[in-house]
Amino acid sequence: MSENAEDKEAKAAGAATLSKDAAPGETLLKVTGLQKHFPIKKGLFQRQVGAVRAVDGLDFEVRSGETLGVVGESGCGKSTMGRLITRLLEPTAGTIEFEGKDITHLGVGGMRPMRRDVQMIFQDPYSSLNPRHTIGTIVGAPFRLQGVEPEGGIKKEVQRLLSVVGLNPEHYNRYPHEFSGGQRQRIGIARALALKPKLVVADEPVSALDVSIQAQVVNLMDDLQEELGLTYVIIAHDLSVVRHVSDRIAVMYLGKIVELADRDSLYKAPMHPYTKALMSAVPIPDPKRKNAKSERILLKGDVPSPISPPSGCRFHTRCWKATEICRTTEPALLELKPGQRVACHHPENFEDQAPQDTVLLTAAKEAAELVADEVLAESAETSAAVAAELAEETTEEAAEETGAEETGADEGSAEASESESESDSQESTDK
Ligand SMILES: Nc1ncnc2c1ncn2[C@@H]1O[C@H](COP(=O)(O)OP(=O)(O)OP(=O)(O)O)[C@@H](O)[C@H]1O
């Protein structure tokens, strides 16, 4: 097939995938090797002297109908990732596919139809709404920008959207300052939903709100997801918000995903020490464990600079398990358990991936001082238990295989004896 014909076919295939909606559970968005390096320029000639490696090689997918939570401390690159997948930022490298179509470098024109399908809700409901516009104008803006005339007119549709998000449709002509923080976030949600998107990326949607209001907004988003079949990527700096709403959770550290797992697996048995540390910072609403303060893991210092991230595993400078291999070799994000991918040489709740490397780095010894003895003991215990379990399984498998081989050998000898007896009978007839 000529290159041109191949190109045409590929385009046609892309268009076909685009026109079909992803069924629940199918991949809606696929990200491969995604990077965003912000150049640092200096001097009169604005020469590039370095780069902020905000997002430094992400691979993940978002499935239709799910909520993917993305967590990590401030500065880990979560917002940058959100802006990249909504194409508000141009990636430095990697690809972004939406419903099978490569949208990595689509220009404004090419992105226009896609804009309807992918929307973003921003963190700060105070600065993301133009104070000079009425909420009618704000929520109706996507229709005007896309040149869409909803049935019954824009005003009627905006009023319907306002009531969907629990606001009074009569307040159509009011200005943002006349609303509370929670109400403003509802306005932001109404605007994001105007064009019936498929994917909504919400960057810290409730962290600027009072705790009492946070649950209301989270519940609203949950209800809307069910009613409208939305897919969410929800970005948050801690696990307390995403723990209730997410189906899967990606944990980011310094521009990388260090763990990606189903919510339940992540909660039952986190595998990356960083995930474990983040989880230990979340208050446990279980009265029996109220005094479990000693299990808290305190991380030393801040996230290192993304301008020159640490070598090997980026978490090694703060990890209480770090050994030489962590300083020299970057661990790959591997699926160690079904549905649980982790990038760590010495994972929690799993067999050690580098058991030969036992000498802790000096930084790790210092970090271990901040980790309760109970945590260290439990971590060593579970890893040893998993290793023993796996060793047992391997022995059983090996025994089964040897058994099978023996049977094979028997079959072989049976055949041999059969042919022997055949030749015997042949011989006897010849005689
Ligand atoms: N436009 C930009 N130019 C240069 N550096 C940037 C830019 N935007 C973000 N960064 C840097 O990229 C890194 C990641 O930032 P990002 O906002 O994505 O992190 P985050 O995990 O979302 O943190 P936060 O929760 O504080 O928003 C930070 O070090 C930040 O300073």
From TrEMBL:
Pfam families cross-referenced by the UniProt entry: ABC_tran (PF00005), oligo_HPY (PF08352)
Transport among keywords: yes
GO molecular function: ATP binding; ATP hydrolysis activity
Keyword vocabulary terms for this entry: ATP-binding, Nucleotide-binding, Transport
Bias-annotated ranges (Low complexity): 378-389
Residue span, ABC transporter domain: 29-279
Region feature (Disordered): 378-431
InterPro entries named among the record's database cross-references: AAA+_ATPase, ABC_transp_ATP-bind, ABC_transporter-like_ATP-bd, ABC_transporter-like_CS, Oligopep_ABC_C, P-loop_NTPase
Comp. bias (Acidic residues): 390-431
Family membership: Belongs to the ABC transporter superfamily.
PANTHER family per the UniProt record, alphabetical: D,D-DIPEPTIDE TRANSPORT ATP-BINDING PROTEIN DDPF-RELATED (PTHR43776:SF7), TRANSPORT ATP-BINDING PROTEIN (PTHR43776)
Protein name as catalogued: ABC transporter domain-containing protein
